[in-house]
Amino acid sequence: MTRRGLILFASLGIIWGVPYLFIKIAIAELTPEFLVLARTALAAALLLPIAARRGAIGPVLRRWKPLLAFTLFEIVLAWYFINAAEQTLPSSTVGLLLASIPLVAIVVAFVMGRRDRLTAVNGVGVVLGMLGVAAIVGLDVGGSDLGAVAQLAVAVVGYAIGPAILARWMHDLPGVGVIAVALGLSAVAYLPIVALTGGWPTEVPSTMTIVSVVVLAVLCSAVAFLLMFALVAEVGPIRMSAITYVNPAVAVLAGALFLGEAVTIWTLVGFVTILAGCALVTRPDPRARATAGTGDQATDADAGVAVETEPEHPTLDEVLDEPMPPTEPIVR
Questions:
Q1: Residue 321, SS3?
Q2: Which of 113, 229, 259, 316 yields a CA-CA distance of 20 to 30 A from 107?
Q3: C-alpha distances in angstroms, 16 versus 167, 200, 203, 215, 332?
């Protein structure tokens, strides 16, 4: 990996790992629904002009049915339930449990029609991942927070369904347009929700809360999306996907260093076991690779797996015109 690639990888790994810290700070003063509204509105205000200049909004709106479904699962539901769960769960625990998304994505892909053969290694990965989740939920979280765990489970399912919708119905659309419009639609959807629930702040939030909202919207959503495309252009989608195993570690460290959250032995056991399970679950069948041939550049959109060669390192300006790469969307 080049020096530029390492810098981008490290930067995005940190940015994707810290949202749970800032959500924990903000949710102490803001309602879950208002936090979604504030974050999506600000991020959309930054990305929509970029998408409009590139003519990326019209093609996305014409695919409005899958767009609405993607927006619902990936942002509207997932962000709300993550915010709600963090009212009681430690931010580090939220980051760890969200690392189980690849396990659920396997089931989602099967339900949506993908019938690729699962190898024995994939099966071992599913079992390991479930044991890791069980270690955290049963031995670290405790029974008093099972309601929050259930809320987080909704977010995990939403994050697994969102990319599957992209892969099946929107894989050819410009990524910057998809994310910008989805963020804008989410903000519009939450305006009446906040009004009906009385979720508006009753007083001016503290400086740290305002900073947290700005960081979530600007850095963890808008800027992270642009960094993701730059990283894909630099190292390719396969190497980029390894960042999935960095984010939970950053979440645990951030929670421990800045919020004083405890890191128990079961936190570490669950962390290692979940990540090992995800690594095995996402490991492709070597026989399928052999069949595809070394010269085949085709991407399995449902699995998010590609036969990768050396990237040509296009510019970020060029990459922004490309469809969403086969990676987890950056809407964290």
A1: coil
A2: 229
A3: 21, 27, 30, 12, 7
d(CA 103, CA 279): 10
The long-range contacts involving 293-300, CB below 8 angstroms and separated by at least 24 positions, are: 299/237, 299/326, 300/116, 300/326
Q: What is the pLDDT of residues 94-112, one digit of tens each?
A: 988 888 887 787 778 777 7
Rounded to whole angstroms, how far apart are CA atoms 10 and 223?
14
212: which 2 tokens?
């947290």
| Cα 233 to Cα 318: distance, rounded to the nearest angstrom | 9
State the pLDDT at residue 212. Answer: 97
Task: Over range 145-158, report the average pLDDT.
Answer: 90
Let me know the angle formed at the C-alpha of 174 by 171 and 179, rounded to the nearest 5 degrees: 90
Give bridge partners of residue 299 from the DSSP assignment: 306
174/323 Cα distance (integer angstroms)? 4
Residue 43 gets which letter from DSSP? H
- Six-digit token string for 201: 């702040």
